[in-house]
Amino acid sequence: MLHRPIAPLLRALLLATLAGMPPSPAAAWDAARAPRYPDADVRTLETRRLAIHGPGSTGDGSLFTVTLPDGTTAGLAQALAARQPLDPTLSRLAAVGPPLLRATGAGYQVQPDRTIRGPDGRRFVVRGVTFLDYLFVSLETRADYRFRAVPGVAVTGGGSSQSGFEPSVWGAPDGSDMRARIADWAAAGVNLLRVAVEPAVAYTGAANGYPAHWDMLDLIVAEANRLGLVVQWQVANDRAPAELNAAFLGQLRDRYWRSRNVWINTGNEPGCSAGGPSCTDAATWTARQTQYLQAVRGDVTGQPAGTRFTGPVVLNAPNYGEAVDTVAATLANATAFATDPNLILGVHTYRIGEATFGARLPGLQRAWIDAIGTHALFLDEVGLTNDGSVRDPALDPRADPARYPAAPAATLATAYGWTADLLAWARRLSRETAFSGVTVFSGSAYIPGLGVHDPNSLRRRDGSWTPFGQTVRDGWLSASADATRFAGGPFVNLLYNADLALDTRGFPGGPAAAGTGTYDGWISLDGATRIGRAADGTVTLAGATCGRRSAGAAPRSPARPW
Predict the structure, then answer these.
(1) Could you write out the DSSP letters of every residue in 140-162?
(2) 185: closest CA among 147, 239, 223, 142?
(3) Euclidean distance between CA atoms 123 and 108, whole angstroms
(4) Looking at the chain, which terminus has fewer C-beta neighbours within 10 angstroms, N or C?
(5) What's the CA gap between 426 and 320, in Å, rounded?
(6) Quick one: pLDDT at residue 514?
């Protein structure tokens, strides 16, 4: 048979996990609020299948309340956060120590269940885009990576040349175009801007009417903060020496330690700029990322000892950001990582020739899906194509087809279908687990000298949506993308994965031996269980005893569809 926790059991479990709080009849959830909210919030520590369930269209659990033994009432999330460890099954979290940012309004903070809480006290799920591609990073070979040497671009007073993309990417020198673009993305549903930067930023002074690059970065942070957006600085020039990148991370720390909307990504796909062993070697990754993390978390220059950047730090895993499994033991046991209370894994995933996203899931399960709930984790980069080969003719209708050939219609259909399926899966995963969202590459990447956009662009330079952008807008960014249906109606079932739509193990349906994990969150408890989900969503259970109980309900009959 199959077994799932039900509401009374969950209530008792949650009360028991609050340290120093024995179960009490006075303790209760505010269940009366449930009918007002059409979707269910579920947070799961995947490694132990400990779930916290309840209503809340924001997915943050803040609508639960718990009456404490002294008679006071607290939000469930706050009560849990204030009492670590929750129980022996979560003892690993105790080694992390208390989160550095507790109070509502203080900043973004990883929670004990590995979700992320925003300054407003609500759960934060990333809906991000990469922003201002090419503006702050150039990849020409240099004798000294402090200073850009872009051909044809004059060197500024800081010793480095500008990137040459200031007119086309920044726009008006006074920043008015930039402010408008940030506002446009905010209006589209974006809540995080991922901006690539490199050490040369610190050496790029004002020139040609444009401000110094540091001043540009400050404007981005200020405007994003005004509109409630996160800015994630992504240190993106992997060709620069590690010591220089570490020093630049220290400069970012010193400049933005007070900015609650700033996250710092220590390196984009570390070691992978040239491919080869450094891209996949776990030991190389560990040494480099330890160095970078220590730079970000070091004392702020010019401030009292112990003054730190306490905002989220994003790490990309080895092998182009995807192979979390190869450093899982390091993340759990190495002091620099295991004791950092605000560390987030940013994984990268692209289609690599498979016909469907479902065909990719078994590999992703091993690489990083299994880490959800053990670590705070989100998709830090996903796009239509990782090599530029999937080009839609509607993207740049005037482009020379000989130089920029369009992909066959069948290839485009497969790529768009793969993306749509990934985003649907991500929506469900973020609703029902600690998975924390998606950043898409790229917001708008236009190359003036070529007169074309990167095939991953969501918008053209005139602001119109590309075909790929429409897929992402409708499947991830828009409010309507949050709608989830169950049995023809709004999803209100408090049981995790009630309609068996999540199947990250790729369970094919049929018999399941005792102890076998089938669909996400469902485990067979005897060898007589058979379970399946038809294409139309019909779920069938068969066995000696099968089905599951809601509060007070009898088991369903064997072999009957739901």
Answers:
(1) ---SSTTS---TT--B-TTSSB-
(2) 223
(3) 9
(4) C
(5) 20
(6) 79
pLDDT digit string, tens, across residues 212-255: 999 999 999 999 999 999 999 999 998 999 999 999 999 999 99
Backbone angles phi, psi at 379, to 5 degrees: -80, 110
What is the rounded CA–CA span in Å between residue 371 and residue 437?
14
Pick out the chain residues at pLDDT < 70: 1-106, 480-499, 504, 521, 543-562
d(Cα 235, Cα 100) in Å, to the nearest integer? 24
Tell me if 233 sits within 8 A of 295, measured CB to CB. Answer: no
Classify strands 452-453 and 485-486 as parallel, antiparallel or unpaired. Answer: unpaired
CB 148 within 8 A of CB 142: yes
In the chain, helix, strand, coil percent, each to 5?
A: 30, 20, 50
What's the full length of the chain, in residues? 562
Residue 496 has a pLDDT of 54
The helix (H) or strand (E) run that includes residue 318 is helix 318-321
What would the two tokens of residue 354 be? 């498979």
DSSP string, 42-103: EEEETTTTEEEEEE-TTSS-TT-EEE-TTS-EEEHHHHHHTS---SGGGGGGGGG-S-S--S
> Tokens 């790229």, residue?
442
pLDDT at 532: 85
Residues near 454 by beta carbon (within 8 Å), at least 6 away in sequence? 133, 388, 442, 445, 446, 447
Q: Which of 409, 439, 402 is nearest to 423 (CA)?
A: 439
Beta bridge partners of 43: 52
**Single pTM value for the model:** 0.72
Task: Give the pLDDT confidence score for residue 528 in this predicted structure.
Answer: 76
Residue from 416, 435, 402 nearest 357 by CA: 416
Residue whose entry in the numeric block shows the structure tokens 């004392």: 299
Q: Distance between CA atoms of 507 and 112, rounded to whole angstroms?
A: 29
SS3 362: helix
**Tokens 């067979």, located at residue:** 524
